[in-house]
Hints:
This protein has about 230 residues and is α+β, with helices and mostly antiparallel strands. The protein has helices at about 15-25, 115-125, 145-155, 170-175, 215-225; strands spanning about 30, 40, 60, 65-70, 85, 90-95, 105-110, 135-140, 160-165, 180, 185, 190-195, 200-205. The strands form 4 sheets. A 5-stranded mixed beta sheet has the order 9-8-7-12-13. The chain has a 4-stranded antiparallel beta sheet with strand order 3-4-10-11. The chain has a two-stranded antiparallel sheet with strand order 1-2. The protein is globular and about 40 Å long. The N and C termini lie far apart (about 35 Å).
Amino acid sequence: xxxxxxxxxxxxxxxxxxxxxxxxxxxxxxxxxxxxxxxxxxxxxxxxxxxxxxxxxxxxxxxxxxxxxxxxxxxxxxxxxxxxxxxxxxxxxxxxxxxxxxxxxxxxxxxxxxxxxxxxxxxxxxxxxxxxxxxxxxxxxxxxxxxxxxxxxxxxxxxxxxxxxxxxxxxxxxxxxxxxxxxxxxxxxxxxxxxxxxxxxxxxxxxxxxxxxxxxxxxxxxxxxxxx
Length: 228
């Protein structure tokens, strides 16, 4: 795994972290002729090992520096808490009542789509699932505004992901212990939820700058679909 050079975060933690996140930048997305699919340039990024623990008082790292999580916390075996999130048309919907209700769902949680790691995580979910999107619902949740999520989806030519925004009060982040306390951003995480809304797989990346293991989530979701 590639090492990531530590960033000093003493003092103005929030401005420096936000600047660092946005300095990841966005890769250019063109369109392949005749396909309507984004020609996304994937980068070699580290994939996180293991998982952090959600909930009040627990930490994740950003380039080696601790960031505190807040909220109730969630673990494998818990039911997904039915908080409301904003859709790209600004209407509110309970997270357990999306179009994939009654199906297996993969929920990808990112701090902001305006960073390179989050962008690649979302493209990978959309483009590398090997047809799993025909059997499960793919969801991305962030605190980006619904307008920003809609623009991202259109520019990236992504139409097989349900985008939900936690921008109003971070209720989803608080209800699941995935809110970064001092930043008002969500931690990076992956959940696989079964047809009864029970969390069957959970990875919270211990290091915010690393990708979650999407391939493992795909394998887990496929097993749940096969078993049902």
